[in-house]
Design goal:
This protein is α+β, with helices and mostly antiparallel strands. It is built from six helices and five strands; from the N terminus they run H-E-H-E-E-H-H-H-E-E-H. The protein is about 30% helix and about 15% strand. The strands form two sheets. A three-stranded mixed β-sheet has the order 1-2-3. Strands 4-5 form a two-stranded antiparallel ribbon. The two termini are about 15 Å apart. The N terminus is likely disordered.
């Protein structure tokens, strides 16, 4: 059983012990399909950084899935950090020059993270959280058996789920 002392010391409970999670269902293993976002925002691999950035801003999101045009198979993930790393700080200002604005025309397949870390809908939340921590990523696309995105799990989704377990 988890006690307050082990939580404060950040000790892990023995993996064979069941953790009482109260009304949320003791002993239930939560899967990604129960927390993943299904409202996906995707761009083709030849889309421009400008198009991806516009999609991110319009939808207040930090990750866009990059798919193969025609098959919709996942090719990679583009994050707002990837965009910021190549985007000129002068874009959108009166000091912007042609070379600054040209960064918006770069294709996403040139800067996206690939291969993308992926998970399956039946994978556990623990597995996803451990992978995200280990690889230092903010999301994991959830794909079907044909590598087509069916969802995405972000740190925000995991934190939202954690709130269900806190008093």
């Amino acid at each position: 059983m988890l006690d307050r002392k082990s939580v404060l010391k950040r000790e892990r409970p023995d993996s064979s012990e069941k953790v009482d999670v109260g009304e949320c269902g003791a002993g239930k293993i939560r899967t990604l399909s129960s927390v993943m976002s299904r409202n996906l925002r995707m761009v083709g691999e030849h889309a421009s950084v400008g198009d991806a950035l516009k999609l991110m801003r319009e939808n207040s999101i930090r990750h866009v899935l990059v798919v193969e045009e025609g098959t919709n198979c996942l090719k990679g993930v583009l994050s707002d950090r990837d965009v910021r790393a190549i985007l000129s700080p002068f874009v959108g200002t009166s000091q912007a020059e042609d070379r600054d604005n040209a960064t918006l025309g770069i294709q996403v397949n040139g800067i996206m993270k690939r291969p993308a870390l992926v998970a399956k809908p039946d994978d556990s939340l623990r597995k996803a959280a451990e992978l995200m921590l280990q690889k230092r990523v903010g999301c994991i696309p959830v794909v079907d058996d044909n590598n087509r995105p069916v969802g995405i799990v972000t740190t925000k989704d995991l934190l939202r789920e954690l709130l269900n377990f806190l008093p």
